[in-house]
């Protein structure tokens, strides 16, 4: 009731407002539109019919009746209206509407006749074909809509020479399952409008149906054969081959597209970047290599060098089994960078990467040392020269020459560390380690204290660890020096000497809650595990747990021992040990791993 009063008020106000500025007929039409807008279609139809009966020239009344009859599903009245209208107003739009009404009334042949008359009425009107095909598509008469667009394409000549209705026909061909037709229309759209993303999206959608793959392949192969000198055709075919996983072929057509369009490598380096992001490092390297081989004359040469280097680093990170030949090839590429960009920071980065490959992958410490010296000599002003000195100090520490190592660090600190906080922290950390290894615990403690708020997480963790070890000096200073010396033996790969020192700590020390006693057990266990001596490795862990069941590192000892039991096939014992972590160490960092291991061993999901 309230709703009716509100609607009446709206209509009444509207009548008063327009009454002074409109004729009587115009006021009626405005009132009818108001009724239509608020959903009172019966009232709207009554007024529209009244005005239309008085004068069929009022198009507002005519179109209002069409809208209202459709909304009320008054198909018989709509057909009657349109049949009458076509007698004196033979516009194409009226024939189109009449055809729709006849089709809905089940008069298919009469509908076709009306649509044929629409084409005869305005055969050169592009929009007439669009309107008719839209009506036919709405009625799901897709084949008729296709034929309408084809007729329009045949009868209408465009000013720009473009083929009409390619996008519309492409969608309709998809609707009727005509894959070849859909692709051909899409390819026309590509060649004429350059709509590469839209065409790729459409073909990709078709590729999701395995039944389409053969047709797509045949069509695109034929397309590239006929258009191999066209930039867009090569771009599309490259994209298609990438989706098939044929990356070498995709790169080949990307190079063709780049050459044809005179982009001087832009498409190629973009392709390389996309391949790199997708994890296809080999083909990314090939793309970058293609540009690098063209030399400095290519404006993307520098970008290719950087990209090649970055991709190599990623490859090395994930591929731990690179052959010596592979590594030498990588080193050769870095040498090319040095030759092309001598004295530059890019070259300095290349020197560092070469030195690291020589040390970590080839185990050629002498060559690594020579490369680092070369960097400090050739580009002494580069920040990387400071890093080279730090890495030289590491090499000298590992060979037992702490004096020379200390000298490099002092030079790095004086020349480079003031303007480079990260380098300053690394230098400070290395200097603290040297004091620690040589037994100067007070000096080491002071240097580690300075580093207690460093940003580098790795350094921060090591500083915390070393500080906790040094704190044992207040209980067992001599044994802390022995422990530090043992750690230095490990760096120098003198495992036999290290084992002797760790065992002396275990055998002679009665303070089980010290860091050095606990860590000696853990380290010895790791040493023997690396030698595949599980029995000896377990011995040190079991002794640890027996003598210190609730120590700071007991959860770690339990986790290591449980893991060893898994390796030995003793799953029940492993489950028991993992369970002890859950029960006795609820705040352990190994909690989640222990819980997961128990589930795996029990065969739980």
Protein model, in words:
With 605 residues, the protein is an all-alpha fold. The chain has a domain of 73 residues: Alpha Horseshoe (Serine Threonine Protein Phosphatase 5, Tetratricopeptide repeat), CATH 1.25.40.10. The protein has 33 helices and no strands. The longest helix has 19 residues. The two termini are 62 Å apart.
What fraction strand? under 5%
CATH topology of the domain at 1-73: Serine Threonine Protein Phosphatase 5, Tetratricopeptide repeat
Report helical residue fraction.
over 70%
Low-pLDDT segments, ≥5 res: 13-21
- Which outline best applies? elongated
Measure the end-to-end span: 62 Å
| Class by alpha and beta content | mainly alpha
In DSSP terms, counting alpha (H) and pi (I) runs of 4 or more, how many helices?
33
Give the number of DSSP strands.
0
Q: What's the rounded overall pLDDT mean?
A: 90
Describe the largest sheet: none
The CATH C-level class name of the domain at 1-73:
Mainly Alpha
Tell me what the CATH architecture of the domain at 1-73 is. Alpha Horseshoe
Radius of gyration: 41 Å
Q: Please name the fourth-level CATH homologous superfamily of the domain at 1-73.
A: Tetratricopeptide repeat domain
């Amino acid at each position: 009731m309230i709703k009716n009063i509100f609607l009446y008020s709206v209509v009444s106000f509207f009548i008063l407002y327009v009454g002074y500025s409109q004729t009587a007929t115009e006021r009626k039409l405005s009132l009818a539109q108001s009724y239509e807008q608020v959903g009172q279609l019966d009232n709207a139809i009554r007024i529209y019919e009244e005005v239309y009966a008085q004068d069929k020239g009022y198009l507002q009344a005519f179109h209002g009746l069409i809208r209202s009859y459709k909304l009320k599903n008054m198909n018989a009245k709509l057909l009657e209206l349109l049949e009458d209208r076509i007698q004196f107003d033979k516009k194409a739009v009226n024939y189109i509407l009449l055809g729709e009404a006849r089709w809905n009334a089940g008069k298919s042949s009469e509908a076709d006749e009306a649509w044929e008359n629409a084409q005869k009425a305005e055969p050169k009107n592009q929009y007439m074909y669009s309107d008719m095909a839209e009506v036919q598509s709405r009625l799901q008469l897709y084949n008729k809509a296709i034929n309408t667009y084809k007729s329009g394409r045949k009868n209408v000549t465009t000013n720009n020479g473009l083929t009409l209705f390619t996008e519309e026909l492409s969608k309709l061909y998809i609707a009727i399952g005509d894959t070849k037709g859909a692709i051909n229309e899409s390819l026309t759209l590509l060649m004429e409008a350059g709509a590469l993303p839209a065409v790729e999206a459409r073909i990709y959608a078709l590729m999701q149906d395995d039944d389409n793959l053969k047709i797509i392949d045949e069509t695109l192969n034929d397309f590239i054969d006929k258009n191999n000198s066209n930039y867009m055709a090569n771009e599309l075919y490259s994209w298609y081959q990438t989706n098939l996983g044929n990356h070498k072929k995709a790169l080949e057509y990307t190079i063709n597209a780049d050459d044809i369009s005179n982009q001087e490598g832009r498409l190629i380096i973009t392709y390389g970047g996309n391949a790199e992001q997708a994890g296809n490092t080999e083909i990314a390297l090939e793309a970058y290599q293609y540009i690098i081989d063209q030399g400095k004359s290519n404006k993307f040469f520098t970008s290719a060098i950087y990209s090649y280097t970055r991709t190599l680093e990623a490859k090395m990170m994930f591929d731990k089994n690179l052959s010596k030949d592979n590594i030498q090839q990588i080193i050769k590429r870095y040498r090319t960078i040095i030759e092309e960009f001598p004295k530059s920071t890019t070259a300095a980065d290349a020197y560092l990467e070469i030195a690291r490959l020589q040390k970590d992958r080839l185990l050629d410490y002498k060559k690594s040392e020579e490369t680092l010296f070369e960097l400090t000599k050739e580009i002494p002003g580069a920040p990387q020269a400071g890093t080279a000195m730090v890495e030289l100090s590491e090499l000298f520490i590992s060979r037992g020459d702490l004096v020379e190592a200390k000298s490099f660090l002092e030079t790095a600190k004086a020349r480079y560390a003031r303007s480079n906080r990260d380098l300053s922290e690394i230098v400070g950390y290395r200097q603290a380690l040297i004091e620690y290894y040589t037994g100067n615990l007070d000096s080491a403690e002071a240097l580690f204290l300075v580093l207690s708020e460093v940003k580098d997480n790795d350094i921060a963790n090591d500083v915390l660890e070393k500080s906790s070890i040094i704190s044992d000096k207040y209980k067992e200073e001599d044994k802390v020096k022995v422990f530090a010396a043992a750690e230095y033996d490990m760096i120098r790969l003198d495992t036999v000497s290290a084992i002797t020192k760790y065992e002396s700590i275990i055998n002679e020390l009665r303070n089980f809650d010290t860091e050095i006693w606990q860590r000696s057990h853990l380290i010895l266990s790791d040493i023997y595990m690396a030698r595949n001596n599980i029995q000896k490795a377990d011995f040190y862990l079991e002794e640890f747990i027996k003598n210190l069941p609730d120590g700071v590192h007991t959860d770690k000892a339990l986790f290591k021992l449980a893991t060893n039991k898994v390796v030995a096939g003793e799953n029940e014992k492993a489950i028991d040990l993992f369970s002890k972590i859950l029960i006795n160490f609820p705040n352990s960092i190994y909690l989640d791993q222990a819980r997961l291991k128990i589930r795996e061993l029990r065969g739980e999901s």
